Amino acid sequence: MQDPAMINQAIATNVRAQRTHRGLTLDALAARSGVSRGMLVQVEQGRTNPSVSTLTRIASALGVTVARLVEVSDVPVVRVVDPADVVTFHQGDVRAKLLVGADSPMILELWDWRLAPGEHHDGDAHPAGTREMLTVLDGELTLTVHGRSHVIGADGAVLFTADRAHRYANQGDRELRFVMVVAEPREMGDQ
Hints:
Layout: H1 4-21, H2 26-33, H3 37-44, H4 52-62, H5 66-70, E1 87-91, E2 94-102, E3 107-115, E4 120-123, E5 131-138, E6 140-145, E7 148-153, E8 157-161, E9 166-169, E10 176-184
């Protein structure tokens, strides 16, 4: 597993580079992302360990993947990700691993999630047209989208429109593990 300080520094460098490449000020990025200017300053200075939700908001506002923001090195034509290089986000008993991602020709991310019994993660609305598909490997997922809950058991799968708030919850009595793909269309002109 990579050193968290190295990942935070990569995030700092990549957010600053993506923001300046687009000619955005910190205030403009704050307005686009819904992340406070103060938090953006901390992220760009590598002084914080941002949550998945914060990184998702920043990435969406910049038109890139979360993977692009946590990338420690340049992406070759073929990228094999060693398990030691997978970036893991811990939020209590919720653990999300960003396995790999790409941002051209569309934004794609592959995630491996684990939630302890009774835990949940609230996902913010992604840009219009974003879809998520996932499969449950162990346990049972309660997915709530637009106020309606759906239960997906082991070996089950689901595809949903993720341009609205959604929640992944483990209402069972054992660990939940699922693998998810996020597919987000790129806005024209973001390339």
